[in-house]
Please model this.
Amino acid sequence: MIDVEGDRLAFFTSPASRKGRNLDADDRIATSVTDRENLTRSALVRGRVVARVDGDAGWAIVDRTFAKYTGGPCPRGEAREAFLVEPTHVVVPTFG
Model:
């Protein structure tokens, strides 16, 4: 699950997850984003995690992102952090 937070991309994970631990060692990320309304529109984004947000501020981002995909808040079963990514390279492929 991914969202936009200001001029940065936002996603979340557990700090103890493989993804969280990998980001401790290397803050570079690459992701692709597809428009749900038009599946032929997408973007490929590379960037760096520039902030990790925990506590109430982190949960606000997590809940907002989770709700876009599910319609409700994220369950509180385990710790979550929001990661903010500053894009360094964006490619928007064109088809046809």
The CA atoms of residues 12 and 65 lie 8 Å apart. Helices lie at 18-25, 55-70. The two ends are 28 Å apart (CA to CA).
